[in-house]
Amino acid sequence: MKRDTINYLYVGGFTITMFVLLVVSLLNITGRGSSADYYYTIYENVSGIREGTTVTYAGFQVGQLVDIEPNRNNGKTTYKLKLAVKEGWPVPVDSFVRVVSPGLLAESQIDISEGQAVSLLQPGGVLASKPALDMMAVLNSMGGEFSNISEAGLIPLLKNINKQVDGFGNNIPVIVDESKELVASLNTVSKRLNKLLTDENSTRLSNVINNTDAMTSNLVSLSSRLDNITEQLQSLVDSSNKMIADNSTDIRQSMLDLRKALNSVSQNMESIMYNLDVSSRNISEFSHQIRSNPGVLLNGKPVKDEGK
Fold first, then answer.
1. Which residue from 136, 51, 123 is spatially nearest to 93, judged by alpha carbons?
2. Tens of pLDDT along 14-29?
3. DSSP alpha helices (H): ranges in the chain?
4. CA distance 188 to 24
């Protein structure tokens, strides 16, 4: 009987010890069991975040959001966020805060982007905030820019080109007729040269002088037709220059809109690449956990919502 009592004491003591260790571990994981430094930041919109939201530093978990305090000044509501960060964690004064989503289905996080300053922000200081990264909003903005370019620049330019081509098309039959006459004249000259160079006409060189006058008149006629073609080509060049001059404003506007769209892409590309990088690191970590312990897929339990 005495031995059974001792065994019960051992089992009870072991159970209590394990429970205490579990509680301590959970407190350390959530950041509530250790001392922390507190920083503040101001946001106009806190959708997607709540008390208990994870705080990361360049993707590394360093704390959590402990309080959201709404303030209304000058007819506008802002929200003061209190961030608990590991005690002694260095935060440069030019660092800034941004709400990010590591994955399409992952919960939002508050990420502190490290600044370049040497001096550090003291606990209790205020961190600058930047708008949340929203990939769909960026894509919608890009689509709107390209739509503006199409409607304001390309479509009017194409309409003006069509008008210029239609106007020039009226002169095409004249050019074709004159070209046919030129080809007919060239054929005539070619036939006469063939007759002149045959063996039968080698003894008739005396007739060359008589045919020279006819050949000269044909060459004069050919020269006049070439002059007409030159005038047509000059008219075509003048029409092209006028078309470019008339549409210079539309072309300039199109280039400005294109540059604006490219600037928008460049400004948001860092945000997009940052989200993709964070997502790839999370996927890599998840794959590593599965390889190390496949039972995580079967024994995993949903994380409890601490804010509720």
1. 123
2. 788 887 787 766 656 5
3. 2-30, 135-149, 155-169, 172-197, 206-246, 248-292, 296-299
4. 108
